[in-house]
């Protein structure tokens, strides 16, 4: 048996080798025939077999992987012959195939340089610029892998003759790019001796294309030769090229100069670079607008690179120059120079838009240039203009850089809150898409980075944030760009960390449920479902949570549309990811199992795929009854399922469920990390319930204190009314008694003594209670009302007399009640003395009459 299997394996291997050899032979034969056909029919322009020849060249990497030796011996020579007369498409394909062979490392680098390098060098100077560039890219990649000796003999030595002025333009351009690559392969003394003379020669070439190309290669050459040679050789060449008559040469010199700023010391920057930069800035608006776009793009890097050598005047000048670029082309929109406006060409408008876009790109760098502390004074007006620019590309760039700006401002981030709302409400979805990428980080900086420390005060500092977020979502929903809508919904999952639970519940949570039910794009529905689960996870009111859970079960899990029931299973998957196992088992385990009886096969199939995750939420022995329900549903599926596809998946799921281990209530080593994570989720859920209970108790206590305060205030109001009535009646009686009697000082003293005795005997029991009530209501009631108001209880009163009285202090209230009692005591004593005087006069008259009669 073993011998037969071995023979069979050998036969299979030999068959594969024979097939490979046949393929190589067929390819070589085809290329040989095509070459002769092309040579014969070249004058007639026959290209009937180009497609098949290109296919053979494209399969060269495959042949090299299968049998490199035979391919190099039989196929590669034929490819070399065909390329002499091949068309553009075959040349491009060959360049890519040669590069692929190098990257695959099918052969050693020595073999590759011996077999492929000569073919690459022969096709570098192809008459077609695209083909020449393709072979050049392959050669530059090969140079990275070649040894130095091979580069010196095969590339550098021929390069000396190829770079001469007598060679073709294409040859000199290729030489420029190769020298930029070679500078990093050799030591600085070899570069100085063999490469730098060629560099100087090409920088003085008669063709501006060559000067431009060589100028752009000065950057890698400078990085290869070091700082000293750069200062003595490269910098003078750059200064001369910056004054070249060709605008493209000047542009290349300027960009290279900016990129090499780090290699120049402060003296070179101050004496050489800064005057050149100032010259570029002055000429950009006058004689050389071609450099304007590049200048605006590199201005941020330039300003920060030269920051240490700027005088205050130069610093201000460059800042004003940047501000001028930010509003370039907006004079008409801003209403300036209406009488001097000229019709701008389309090219000028595009150029000005590019300049403002580059200014928006450099805005974070300019914040560093002026210092974030000076942002509001120096750059806020420009920031406002760029965020409200009429062109979408400018606002798009500002939206991309908004997060960087917010990070740089740090505690001053509150100054750009209005612009955040503006960009959220932008009419272009491209701007919204760019802003949403870092929306969670931006909102977090807005909330935590401002001066305020309390979350409520921070939320109030962005009053239009929630309307702007809802508007942005609705605009994305009504557009055809569903990816932007999906991205927006995913980022909105950060809102529980930004705004309150009630705001999310009333403004966003129900909207997510509506999207799940009505949207037709599956990724959007899933994004909404996950965000809804996050909102549910951080909701702080149990009543609201139960309402949402009930809607999910009724409208999705028990919905009429099978599509909604599928989304219910997606939602349950997110719930298992975000919530604890006990939460899922409590609310969603049984509704999920009910879908085993769903009439639609696709729903049952999706449920079967979800069952292993469902089983992983169980804990034994706590959820033993749920495990029994799961096993019962699986048995029913096995026995009653009629759909073949569903039954196949059910059987596969049963095998997977049998292999699963159920976690216990106690920790196990295998599930230790998962159990810890689940325990943390459960702890947070219990914490939310406890916080909600504490809030309810606090509200109940505040309600009770408010009711007690209401009762005390009502009692005080009644007592004040009765005391005011007593005061009025007693003052009237005292005024009547004083007008009817007139006595001397002794009588007043006797009356005062008697009134005091009456006040301590007859009036004390009655009016002391009133005084006590008045003092109690004025002191305890009023202070308790103040404490209640301090806690936030708002009380309304309808009695004006009590409202004016409550503004005073408790001492005044007590004094008024006691003074009314003293007045009542005095009036009562005066009336009593009057009655006693009348009785004495009558008794004297009776005694006189009796005496007369006796006499």
Kindly list the characteristics that best describe this protein:
two-stranded parallel ribbon; 0% strand; 855 residues; single chain; 78% helix; disordered C terminus
Topology:
Layout lengths: L1 H40 L8 H9 L1 H7 L1 H16 L4 H17 L4 H7 L1 H6 L6 H17 L2 H15 L6 H14 L5 H16 L4 H9 L1 H8 L1 H16 L4 H13 L6 H19 L7 H14 L6 H15 L4 H4 L11 H16 L1 H8 L4 H4 L1 H8 L4 H18 L7 H8 L4 H8 L2 H10 L6 H6 L4 H14 L3 H10 L9 H18 L3 H16 L4 H16 L4 H17 L2 H7 L1 H5 L7 H15 L3 E2 L3 H17 L3 H16 L3 E2 L7 H69 L4 H17 L2 H27 L9 H7 L3 H45 L1
Parallel strand pairs: 1-2
Please give a structural write-up:
This protein has 855 residues and is an all-alpha fold. It has a domain at 13-42. It is built from 44 helices and two strands. The chain has a two-stranded parallel ribbon with strand order 1-2. It is flat and about 105 Å long. 32% of the residues are buried. Mean pLDDT is 78; it is low at 1-25, 27-48, 333-341, 451-460, 721-845 and 851-855.
